[in-house]
Fold each of these.
Amino acid sequence: MQSFIDIFTSHKSERSFTDQPVDDAALDRIIEAAYRAPTSVNSQQVSLVVTRDAAKRAEIAQIAGGQPWIAKGAVFITLVLDMHKSRVAMDAIDQQQVAQQSIESIVSGATDVGIALGSIMAVARSEGLGIVPIGGIRRDPQAMIALLDLPEYTFPVAGVVIGHVDQPAAQKPRLPMPTFRHEERYQQAGLAQHIADYNAEMVQHWKTIGRSDGESWSESVSGYYSKIYFPDVLPALKKQGFGNDK
């Protein structure tokens, strides 16, 4: 078994899986880790929807923009920001929930989803399984909401594929550590050069693994951040009962 630190520092997003199912006991341990993860003010505002049905996984793959590894991996878990549970709890004592109208609740809930997702990925990898987190379910959130029968005051924030790896992925280089770790205050000096160096490193990485179409990091991130790339998120959030302090 890998050491604790190796599990985290050797992370790779796998996109090639075998047909072998995930052991039920292993899946239970993975889910237990997310279940016990911390949540803001003990809100427990995270729920998981586990999808093993092949037809549904294929549908999720299409919702996410055509990602075949979703259909191929044995298990897909959708992590849901869930304020439906707290609304039911407050109804029981004749209290009205209004917090979902604040952007803070969305930020807090998404943070708690991220903590749970990290727990899932770490434990899955400790079980010898491969994972790839999926944000693409937000491409068409309304379709995910319908597929999973999500009630009001819930939202599918992210997902993760879990399965046995077929062809292992190569670990991508990261931006230099000084762009990530800042002592006492945010350090802007040298950032442009660090990014230039990383752009060159990424282009070389793609060449090394046989990808002739590999982009620099600047080009890659521009492909997403030069536009609002998931424009249906806010309308779907509002339809689910969430607000943004307006």
Note: The chain is about 45% helix and 10% strand.
Amino acid sequence: MAHMTSYSSPGPTVGFDLDMTLIDSRPGIRASMLALAERTGTYIDADLAITRLGPPLADELINWFPAEEVPAVADLYREMYPSFAIAATLAMPGAPEAIEAVRAAGGRAVVVTAKYEPNAKLHLAHLGIDADAVIGDLWAEQKAEALRAEGASVYVGDHVGDVRGARVAEALSVAVATGPCDADELRAAGADVVLGDLTEFPRWLSDYLAARA
């Protein structure tokens, strides 16, 4: 049914990344990492970990755990995560309005994230952000699979990995400088548009759609 909606919809389908694009998950992830460290008796520098959000969880855990333990530790982290991370996480400035701008234009807003999908959905539900679809467990170029399947013509993210995903999907890459990558890095990676944050998105979208029309 997703395909039917995307083709009959009068407006664009816009994909959004989650962490540091729609949500500021740093306090929640920091709390979860500290809880994981306590549970496993393993030191984790949680303050360092939250400076490099974006890539898959395993890419962070490999810094603190032997490779053979990472899959089991990742499962434990995901299981513990809702108790520590959901209530502590806030929407990024302009996030609800960005989703609403897509809807107001007759479009669909879909979330494509590397985060474990059930936890991504918990975040959005807690913050009252209502996406048309949520697809998790995809990072960088892998995001193109979901973006293509959903018919997304624009992908909004904060990481150079998001820029790469958009390019592979042949979607316009709109980057927000609210995550670990600054505006220069995002431009160098090939972002088509770089915004300071999502508060600038509704006006950009309006101008973009007017130019296309």
Note: Residues 1-9 have pLDDT under 50 and may be disordered.
Amino acid sequence: MRLSLSRHTLCMLALAIALPTLALAAPATISASHDSLEQRIKACTACHAQQEKHDAFFPRIAGKPAGYLYNQLLNFREGRRQYPMMNYMVEHLPDAYLREIADYFAAQHPAPPPAQPSNAGAAALARGRQLVLQGDSGKKLPACIACHGEKLAGVAPAIPGLLGLPRDYINAQFGAWKNGKRRAHAPDCMAQVAERLSDADVGAVSAWLGTQVASADARPAENIAVPLPLHCGGVPGSGAQVAP
């Protein structure tokens, strides 16, 4: 806990320094200069550094599809997602600015983080593997790979990868969907998935995902078979095959 609080303090200090520059640049389109762009997004990289700390607050965003990152910035700005630092940082930023930030991080592909140690037993890991790769028809749960891609690296333009995310972050996001603190454009497919997962299932999924490591050349797939198992408001052209 002390380490997390310390990192929060560092992020708040970085935001205090970087946000004035971010705000001054917001009315105009971000300069095409790579150095200028990096200078202006220091408020982002202060928390979303390439070297993850595997905590619940600051996931890897580098390499995720630009459409997904853009949608999440909009969700923070419009209150569908709640995290005070993010809500404050983007509340006055225009769409074009958010899109350029999303494009920048989508183009970054640092080396994948190592596997996370897990205390989960064999049964929990087996259950997590089943849910990720096969789903659970009895609970009307599609496999994670049905939407997030066979390599779990995400699908362009708007479905994120799952490998490399801190286990605590995955648990926290499922909790946020369950209690309504995180929402997406209706129909909110992930809220439906979260509702059908027990707490034990959530822990099993996050534990198994944490033990997996993406290949160094993993990239979001360019397309996926549609319709998707669930109709997702944030994914253009998705359909519904599993009853809500």
Note: The mean pLDDT is 83.
